[in-house]
Design a protein that fits this description.
single chain; alpha+beta; Beta Polymerase, domain 2; Hydrophobic Seed Protein; seven-stranded mixed β-sheet; 55% helix; binds adenosine-5'-triphosphate; binds magnesium ion
């Protein structure tokens, strides 16, 4: 984004003019070298937080005690952080103390991985004391300094290590990986929100990186050592999941182009034989926002429902089951289900049995049947509960909800028009037949 770059230049220039050193650092330098889009820009400077605040008009005191001030230029935020050193790491988490220092090199030394410990000056010159560019070229995640000490200081770095390996399809340097395996149990000291934030980054990106990340978490057993016992319910040991990554990269990429995150999580849960209740509990432990949790659970519930139809093989005609499923779990769940099944195909080995004819039919017609639905919920009906009460002169009760549900289904199936009079008539018939 050209505005982001020019904003960053403006911030650097202002700091230079005031007599301070200032550099681009961290993720933005790394992503620029990888020719990946840059989403946020971090700046390291010799100016103290109070000095930064006084130099710029619009600032937000994001974390003054850690040295971070957010500087606004137009609509863009820039995180400006004073060169600092960290010490007194406690409980394998963030440092207790930070002290401000005068040189960039000391600041780069505290950073986690070699490719995150590079800086760029305003002329585009790279400052790369730990050979991060070389590791980027070779595709290697490597701790700055002694991996053993770095993971011991801050256990979150282990899950960041997996995240970067997954998102960039990198290998983990052997000594970094060995240290990770030694210190993996310390992940239990890290808040689940922070673990989730890193997992989100790999799962949001693509199914490929999601599966790659999950496989590294499984291989390292990091998943077992989170603060809460996720592993009890979530068994990721199905190796078809990981084989696909090796063999089907192109098709995974194609599938990803129009996938949303909920579909991706849904597929991961379903493919690891996790039922909706287990998935819900895992997502709670992972501190998912409720809304996202619900979306994924509804998708898995719809799948379980459709699967029960397949098992029971109750209906020749699939449309009624589909419509019931859509009315119960929602249109979004249905669209996601269609997408999930498309992805699921990638995991079917040739010797596995063919998809059930019911699923085949749904995949063929499901989308059209969805678009033909004129009603999705009771409030879409051209009638309200109190209309029926008035008409029938009956007292409200559970029968009313059931009746409205019946009407909704009838209209959805095209058996009754969504018209007040017709609906009242159908309601009378149902009541009289009882
Ligand atoms: P993203 O693309 O996800 O923003 P990022 O590398 O910018 O990746 P941030 O969490 O934004 O990740 O951190 C910015 C920089 O701060 C990192 O590049 C790294 O230099 C440093 N950093 C972040 N977390 C740690 C940590 N736990 N230990 C050491 N350094 C860290
Ligand atoms: Mg960042």
């Amino acid at each position: 984004d050209a505005n982001l770059i020019s904003g960053a230049r403006a911030v650097l220039t202002r700091l230079h003019d005031a007599g301070f050193q200032a550099y681009l650092v961290g993720g933005c330098v790394r992503d620029a070298l990888l020719s990946k889009p840059i989403h946020d820009v971090d700046i390291a400077t010799s100016a103290l937080p109070a000095e930064v605040t006084s130099i710029f008009e619009r600032t937000i005191p994001t974390g003054m005690q850690h040295g971070t001030v957010t500087v606004m230029v137009d609509q863009y935020p820039f995180e400006v952080t004073t060169f600092r050193q960290e010490s007194g790491y406690e409980h394998f988490r963030r440092p207790k103390e930070v002290s401000f220092i005068h040189d960039l090199e000391g600041d780069l030394l505290r950073r986690d991985f070699t490719f995150n410990a590079m800086a760029m000056d305003i002329d585009g010159h790279l400052i790369d004391p730990y050979d991060g560019q070389n590791d980027l070229d070779k595709g290697i995640v490597r701790c700055v300094g002694d991996a053993d000490a770095r993971f011991q200081e801050d256990a979150l770095r282990m899950i960041r290590c997996v995240r970067f390996a997954a998102c960039y399809d990198f290998q983990v340097d052997p000594s970094t990986w060995a240290a990770l395996r030694i210190h993996r149990t310390k992940l239990q000291y890290i808040a689940m929100e922070r673990v989730r934030a890193e997992m989100d980054k790999m799962i949001d990106l693509s199914l490929y990186s999601a599966i790659r990340g999950m496989s590294l978490m499984q291989e390292s057993r990091l998943l077992e050592f989170t603060k809460v016992m996720i592993h009890d319910q979530w068994n990721l040991e199905d190796h078809t999941l990981y084989q696909v990554v090796e063999q089907e990269q192109d098709r995974l990429e194609h599938w990803d182009k129009h996938a949303d995150v909920a579909v991706r999580w849904g597929l991961l849960f379903y493919r690891s034989h996790t039922n909706p209740e287990q998935a819900q509990s895992i997502m709670q432990k992972l501190t998912f926002p409720n809304r996202k949790n619900t979306e994924i659970v509804e998708l898995l519930q719809l799948h379980a429902y459709l699967h029960s139809i397949v098992i029971g093989n109750k209906e020749e005609d699939v449309k009624p089951s589909w419509v019931r499923g859509v009315l119960t779990f929602g249109k979004d769940a249905a669209l996601r289900w269609l997408h999930m099944m498309e992805g699921d195909e990638l995991f079917q080995s040739p010797h596995q049995q063919q998809a059930s004819p019911i699923f085949t039919q749904l995949r063929k017609h499901g989308e059209r049947w969805l678009s033909e639905l004129h009603v999705l919920k009771i409030s879409d009906l051209d009638i309200k509960g109190h209309d029926i009460l008035k008409h029938q002169k009956k007292k409200a009760g559970p029968w009313l909800g059931e009746l409205l549900q019946h009407l909704l289904y009838q209209v959805a199936m095209g058996q009754v028009d969504n018209d007040r009079h017709e609906l009242l008539e159908e309601a009378s018939q149902v009541i009289n037949n009882e």
